[in-house]
Structures are given as C-alpha cells and as structure tokens.
Write a structure and sequence with these properties.
Radius of gyration: 20 Å
Largest sheet: 11 strands, mixed
Shape: elongated
Number of helices: 4
Distance between the termini: 53 Å
Mean pLDDT: 97
Structural class: alpha/beta
Number of strands: 28
Strand order of the largest sheet: 1-4-7-10-13-16-19-22-25-27-28
Length: 256
C-alpha cells in the first residue's frame, strides 16, 4: 500500500506500484510510471514522461523528467527513465528526451548529489557518483562506475568512460577515456585511476596493463599510431579492448 501525504498531488492517470512513500508538496503528473518502494521526500516533482523503477530515494526539490532546455524541442512525446536503487539528492534536475533520442536514461545504483543537472537525451550508467552542482549538457554519455566531482561542466555529446575520476571544478569539451584520472587546468590525462580500480577489484596486473596501454597511446603524436602500438605490444583482454574501442569511436576526441 502506498503512503501518500494528503498535501501531495498524484494525477489520477499516474501509475504507481506498491509501498511508495509520497511526502508533502510532492507533485506527480500524468503519463508517469513508478515501481515499488520509492521514497519521495517533500517537494519532489515527477513530471510528464517519467518512468521510474524501484527502491529509489528522491530528496526535497528534485525535479524529474522536466521539459528539455532545448529550443529545438517542439513538445514531442518523450520520456525520462530512472532505474533502481538511485539516490537523487536535493534540487537535482533531470530533463526528458527530445526527438534526437527520445529519452534520457539514468541507470541503477547512482548517487546524484545536490543541485546537479542531467540534460535531455543523456545516458548515465550504473554505480556512478556525480558531485554537487555538476552539469551535463545534452546527449552526454557516462559509462558505469564513473566518479565525477563537484561543479564540473560537460559539453554536449561528450562521452565519459567507465571507472574514471574527474577533478572537481573542471570542464571538458572532449571525451574522457576509461580507467583514468582527468584533472588539472585545462583538463588532461593525469594518470590511471589506481585507487578506484583497486576498490573495484582490479588486480595489480590488470592495472599495470591499463597503465602501459595509456603510455603507448600517448607516446605518439597521432592517436591512431598509439592504438597500433597497443595492438602490437599488449595482449588482448577486456580492458585493452575497451580502451581501443573508446578511442576509435570517439567523436569529440579524447583528452591528452
């Protein structure tokens, strides 16, 4: 049975699962779907097009599936998908999609800290930690287990690799490859995220292999030549293949 505060509004067309707690001054619009065991503290807004999983907690002032801040948006019927076990803190805003992709996606087990923004058509993976006041422009992709510090800015269409650490107060208009620390000003490669990888169970041998891959990659003036060096000198494995695919598929170019 859902617990809905008498000072909350839930549209009669909204679809709610079971055992949700809807606090005072919350607003849940029509064309919204919510799973089970979600907690909406006071003053949370769930806008048109939201598709929310289970076991999420939304803190005061969060606004989910907001209308995109994009002048190309013409009112098309789009969605915002939130997975399971996310903690979405105070005043977080997540826009719904546009005609470009049709949906904005936040996966499972993420911590989105206070006042951060996920723009239209972004895709956030699983197990990510995003710091206070960080902003993602439209169609940014963040892979699993990325850690992004506070007050960071990401240009539209950027791709952020898995298991990275991104320095607080930084900004980027280029892609951040997997397993690295990105820092300094202007933003650049600052080594392999050794501590983060160890915490996630990567062996010392795998970490050394990743380190050697980036040494070879950045040893050449042309990234394509660096990729060829990796292919020639390092054994094929999941981590090496992930790095190669990321660099070869980068649209905005990677940080150096």
């Amino acid at each position: 049975m859902n617990q809905i505060h008498p000072m909350a509004f839930v549209h009669p067309e909204a679809i709610l699962g079971d055992n949700n707690i809807i606090g005072p001054f919350c607003y849940i619009d029509k064309n919204t779907v919510m799973g089970d065991n979600n907690v909406l503290q006071n003053s949370v807004t769930i806008n048109y097009g939201a598709r929310i999983g289970s076991n999420n907690e939304f803190f005061p002032g969060a606004s989910i599936s907001t209308k995109p801040q994009d002048l190309k948006f013409k009112g098309e019927d789009t969605t915002c998908q939130i997975g399971d076990h996310n903690s979405i803190r105070e005043n977080v805003t997540i826009s719904r999609g546009t005609a470009s992709k049709g949906t904005t996606i936040v996966g499972n087990g993420n911590l989105l800290m206070e006042n951060m923004h996920v723009a239209h058509d972004c895709v956030i993976g699983n197990g990510c930690i995003i710091g206070n006041s960080t902003k993602f422009a439209g169609e940014v992709v963040v892979d699993d287990f990325a850690i992004i510090s506070a007050t960071c800015l990401f240009h539209q269409f950027c791709h952020v690799g898995s298991y990275i650490m991104f320095q607080g107060g930084s900004r980027t208009s280029q892609d951040i490859p997997p397993y690295v620390i990105a820092g300094k000003e202007p933003i650049r490669y600052a080594g392999v995220n050794i501590i983060g990888l160890r915490r996630r169970g990567f062996s010392n041998e795998k970490i050394e292999l990743i380190h050697e891959a980036y040494r070879l990659l950045y040893s050449k003036g042309v990234l394509k030549e660096g990729i060829e060096e990796i292919k020639k000198n390092l054994p094929e494995c999941e981590e090496i293949n992930t790095i190669i695919r990321f660099v070869e598929n980068s649209k905005r170019g990677i940080i150096r």
